[in-house]
Amino acid sequence: LEKIPVDLYRMNSGKGVIMDSGTTDTYLHESIAAPFEKVWKRVTGGRTYSNAPVKMEEKDLLLLPTVLIQLAAYDEVGSPLQGDLEKFPGLAGKDVDPTSPMDVLLAVPATHYMEYSPSKGTYTPRIYFTESAGGVIGANAMQGHNVLFDWENQRVGFAESSCEYQEESKTVTDDGNVMSVDCRLGAPSLSVSCSDSADLSRCDGGGGGVD
């Protein structure tokens, strides 16, 4: 595990760091660029990090590091998880950060931050270090997580996604494509007759018109 020093004041300046599933990519503060590049080179054997497309095989993609984004935990209310941190994946824990073990670690593997272009056969890194104030954690960082936006309490919650699709829920079409059938549409049925759904009290008994 390689830690990257972050100036929290600059990182959270302006409007702060927002969660936006409508933004495809992730944009972090420009001050992180240099220390990230230094660690990236060390763990990738000298590769330079940039947002330019690169050609690589899938096996090389899977060797790229997983980026962990540490999010400060809401600590105004005592947590029932104290003492049981190892049972809950996604928390910093005492081994990663003994001063803030309740912080959330948002794991972003290379398969999420490297966008593949089938037409060009290239991968493009989609974590940008371009923001002069604050940042945006986009959809590529949210993949593989259940995200709860708690508007009433002004909080955001994260949990690792447990989506599992069974092989039985897939079928092969006539042209050879694989299609998910875990959601099937049944035959249409009429649950309420047309006459029962009409408000006959609004009808004019004399001329048959509607008021």
Q: Which residue ranges are poorly predicted, with pLDDT under 50 across at least 5 consecutive positions?
A: none
Principal-axes geometry comes out as globular
Report Rg: 25 Å
Sheet with most strands:
2 strands, parallel
User: Treating each run of at least 4 consecutive H or I residues as one helix, how many helices?
Assistant: 7
Rounded mean pLDDT score: 81
Structural class: alpha/beta
H/E element string? HEEHHEHEHEEEEHEEEEH
- The total beta strand count reads 12
Helix content: 10-25%
Could you characterize the architecture of this molecule?
The protein is α/β, with parallel strands linked by helices and 211 residues long. The protein has seven helices and twelve strands. The strands form six sheets. The chain has a two-stranded parallel sheet with strand order 1-8. It is globular, with a radius of gyration of 25 Å. It starts with 7 loop residues before the first helix and ends in a 14-residue tail after the last helix. The model has no long low-confidence stretch (mean pLDDT 81).
